[in-house]
Write a structure and sequence with these properties.
Distance between the termini: 69 Å
Structural class: alpha+beta
Radius of gyration: 23 Å
Strand order of the largest sheet: 2-1-3
Number of helices: 2
Order of helices and strands: EHEHE
Helix content: 10-25%
Length: about 130
């Protein structure tokens, strides 16, 4: 609990509990994903219970897939992984920030997603442009 003289609590290093300065993503473990699905299913069940029976049932969409889900991992400066590694999504079995693997980790993170190419700008008709004299 924070006191008036202490800084506000925020994310903490997963290894030592010090305030975090770095964050990255990893895939959910099987157990974490099962817990997440149970939570989502419970919400859906409640939505269906509360839905108006005189209306069509709500469209809840598909359940999430493991490839859609990540969790944040935090580390303090001494236990941080490299900037390149922090920019990538790690596997569910990644042990970072394990001291034995620092400044790296024990997995092969997913490649960085390539941004969508910028769309080509359309040319305006000549009658829409102004000519300066």
């Amino acid at each position: 609990m924070s006191t008036p003289d202490s800084p506000m609590l925020g994310p903490r290093c997963g290894l030592c509990g010090e305030p975090a300065v770095v964050q990255w993503q990893r895939r959910l473990t099987s157990a974490e994903f099962a817990d997440y699905l149970a939570l989502i299913q419970d919400r859906r069940d409640n939505q269906l219970l509360l839905a108006d029976p005189d209306q069509p049932p709500p469209d809840l969409g598909p359940l999430p897939d493991p490839s859609d889900c990540t969790r944040s991992v935090y580390a303090c400066a001494p236990h941080a992984i490299t900037l390149d590694a922090a920019a990538r999504i790690h596997t569910q079995t990644c042990t970072a920030p394990a001291e034995s693997d620092l400044p790296g980790c024990n997995c092969a993170p997913e490649p960085v997603a390539t941004p969508d190419p910028e769309p080509e700008r359309p040319q305006l008709p000549a009658s829409w442009t102004t000519e300066e004299a």
